[in-house]
């Protein structure tokens, strides 16, 4: 089985959409193997978004992701589970995301787009180690 990281972002928690989002993954046949509701601190955010440090949007991104609780989760499924999750999430911009995707159905803003999913198997391994080091 393959694993990937999913984060229901602060806007998903605030809007009460975590159950809907997790339910979509479960209905697809993916299994939730770890989950934690927590507010992310600057250390975790700096490690998670290391490739964006110094970019113009970094400070706003960190402020958004740290403003309230998120649900960090590891989901397990078939090979390339990260790709299944990314397809289910839809395009980053909810206005461009296809109907039937999480962002297409539920999202309203590109800067607050409900959910994060690892973008490769390598990213999934790195991100899971940040959020759930005991799973390694």
Count of alpha and pi helical runs: 7
Please state the structural category: alpha+beta
Average pLDDT score? 96
Q: Taking strands numbered 1, 2, ... along the chain, how are they ordered across the largest sheet?
A: 2-3-1-4
What features would you describe in this structure?
The chain is an alpha+beta fold and 136 residues long. It has a single domain (2-135), classed as Nucleoside diphosphate kinase-like domain (Alpha-Beta Plaits, 2-Layer Sandwich), CATH 3.30.70. It contains seven helices and four strands, in the order E-H-H-E-H-H-E-H-H-E-H. A four-stranded antiparallel sheet has the order 2-3-1-4. It starts with a strand and ends in a 5-residue tail after the last helix. The mean pLDDT is 96.
Record keyword descriptors for this entry.
single chain, 136 residues, alpha+beta, Alpha-Beta Plaits, four-stranded antiparallel beta sheet, 7 helices, 4 strands, 41% helix, 19% strand, globular
């Amino acid at each position: 089985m393959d694993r990937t990281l999913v984060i229901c972002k602060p806007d998903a928690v605030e809007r009460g959409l975590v159950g809907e989002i997790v339910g979509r993954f479960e209905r697809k046949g993916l299994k939730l193997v770890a989950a934690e509701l927590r507010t992310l601190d600057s250390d975790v955010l700096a490690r998670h978004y290391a490739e964006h440090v110094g970019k113009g949007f970094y400070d706003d991104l960190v402020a958004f992701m740290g403003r309230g609780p998120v649900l960090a989760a590891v989901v397990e499924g078939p090979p390339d589970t990260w790709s299944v999750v990314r397809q289910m999430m839809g395009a980053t911009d909810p206005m461009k995301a296809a109907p039937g995707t999480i962002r297409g159905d539920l999202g309203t803003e590109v800067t607050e787009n409900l959910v994060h999913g690892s973008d490769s198997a390598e990213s999934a391994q790195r991100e899971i180690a940040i959020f759930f080091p005991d799973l390694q």
